[in-house]
Input
Amino acid sequence: MSLLPDGYLDDAAAAVAAAADEAELAAAERRFAGRGSAVSDLKSSIGSLDVADKPVAGKLVKETTARIGELVDARRAELARAEAAQAGERDRLDLTLGGHGRRRGHLHLVTQVQRELEDIFVGMGYRVV
Output
């Protein structure tokens, strides 16, 4: 007697592994362990089963739900590690980029006057030697 469809856990494992983000992972978890799933349907129909089949069905529901939960938790941890690695790459200081573009301090007053005078005389046609 098959209480769950053949390959149900394999399909759940494939859907969980294929989830690229938290939203897809939650959707896969709802699809295979949430309301309306085969596990949920089996759980709600345990009362109508034969007395001998009830413990087997209950154990199957519990094991299947626990296994899907383990798969989801493992994938969630993988996604968190990948996100943390990307955040670490983003936040890492790249010393090859150079400075911030702001200069510190200022030129000495005599140097500023000298450069202004050079600009004035170059503008009049003289050369700085």
The two ends are 103 Å apart (CA to CA). Helices lie at 8-18, 22-33, 38-44, 53-91, 109-123.
